[in-house]
Hints:
alpha/beta; three-stranded mixed beta sheet; Epimerase_deHydtase; NAD(P)-bd_dom_sf
Amino acid sequence: MINKGSERILIIGANGQLGSVLTEALKDKYDEEHVIASDLYLNEEYDGIFEIIDATNKSRIQTIVSKYNITQIYHLAAILSAKGEEQPLNTWEINMKTWLNVLEVSRISGISKVFYPSSIAVFGDNAQKDNTPQHSFLDPSTVYGISKVAGENWAHYYYLKYGLDVRSLRFPGIIGYQSMPGGGTTDYAVDIYHKAVKQEKFSCFLKSDTTLPMMFIDDAIRATLELMEAPADKIKVRTSYNISGVSFSPSEVVNSIQKIYPDFEVVYSPDFRQKIARNWPGSINDSEAKKDWGWKQKFNLDDITSVMINKLKEKYK
Ligand code: AKB
């Protein structure tokens, strides 16, 4: 049971693809005035309490945590896989510094629960490519992946050493209509729906047969909330849980879209992101998440296509 009244939630990175939707879901679940959205820049359209936080600044996080008596932090700010390769050292600096700041403020302030999104980017060449197990060899090829492996291990460390209740999911590519992702290797799978609805030709930066794990935003939000609401003794993995949604390649999503828009056209011009994608798994084994806290995915590819197209048609009409 959640005690709605006593929880005070801080979301860091609330303007992002996951953050913007998760913040609304948390506002539905908790008292609205107890949900504090934050990001580097003010979101003028946001309806609720919003604070500007640069999470590389630990004292700024501390100030906001103290100001609102925060009890839970969702730390969603990070530079993603493709963008991260432009400036590897800067990406490492930002991804690690922000996370260590959140962990330290949480420890010092007695935060009761922390959420940390990890990623399928933790897997590299030496992990099994299909049905990738929870406990795999982790040799990521991107700086984003390296920072997520380190971040998972820091989560585990803070749990073991300080008893901080940090919970984490290894997200696949997330597909949602509410906002655009920025700087990821799986971003094509959102962009393609926008082009289809606008009846434009789509140029895909991955090869047609590049299968990657993906997940509809509703499943990703539900997974986050279910993980965070599970009793602490059910959480057996304190690095980060594998979770699986659906796996598909660009040509499969094109086929799914063409059931609705038969004339939809795509050209393939793979770039550096193809190499990143080739190092990632095609599908994920999430049996531990299923066993420990009852995870179950709902949306398959055609479900995703149907919701994406209907919602984006409203947006562009
Ligand atoms: C990315 O493509 O970098 C992200 C991810 C899979 O973590 N969407």
